[in-house]
What we know:
Rossmann fold; alpha/beta; 9 helices; seven-stranded parallel β-sheet
Amino acid sequence: MLTDPIVVIGASAGGIEALQALVAGLPQEFPAAICVVLHLNAHHPSTLPAILSRAGPLPALHPRDGELLQPGHIYIAPPDHHLLVEGDRLGVKKGPKENRFRPAVDALFRSAAHTRAPHVIGVVLSGVLDDGTSGLWNIKRLGGVAVVQDPQDAAFDAMPRHALEQVEVNYQVRAQEMGPLLAQLVQDSTLYQMEAAMDEQQRERLAMEVHIAAEGPKSPASVGQFGSYTPFTCPECHGAMVQIQEGEGLRFRCHTGHAYTSHTLLTELSETIEDKLYQTQRAMEEGILLLERLSQQLSGTRAEALLRQARWVEQRAKVLHQLALTQTPLSDGEPLVQ
């Protein structure tokens, strides 16, 4: 059993500034490895290792798959790859996306909890929606330590706020206070709770989710072990989705492996509704153009009938257009019916 502490950090929008403030406060002889997931554009190279190497005393890098973890190093997930903790090594994998992202914070946090608990410190920084909350919940359930950026200090407070709402967080501090705090925490072995609050079935589910992040589901039917199937379909692949309950949190996973928190799924569905409205409007406008074109080829009552039908469709298209313009998106903090 590995007993060296490890720090795992997740961030999204506004996360670069928070990470810079955090690493600036770390000591040069930091005795633990640090793993970072920041939501990145999948199609552009990342300069985050250079940014963080300049911001603080520790070297930052994109690791290779299978790379050995070393204390005093910051390992950053490469674009379009999950970063997973596999004991004393790192996995750089292209498993299914979670919450629309690869890399995903939850995937990193769960893997650290699975292979290094209880000696894990999970940190959630600035970001939108709630990636990281599920993973932090797993870290806490297996005896680790939870640290969250003060939402008032975050450029985007949704990720810290959701973590605070659903996880019993140990520390809530500003980004510039995190470096000194982490330096203290990795030296204090009394922080970790050796008695886990996770039963054997929950541990097996955690292991399955870590495997999905690395390689995808072992079989389509295996995802059914997480919970009951729902009437919802995956926004990405349109596969059937099961419902997963974690404390007060609700998540969904499809049989190909994509995963969503309830808030992210709600956002996806809201965007889908708007897309469908505009697709229907486009089809109606094309119908109007076709009816008008056909009426030009005819005369008398037949042409008039086509024009009347065009005006009828036009009136309804205007109503649909107004509906699309006035659609009110569900706010990030709006409660969900569970």
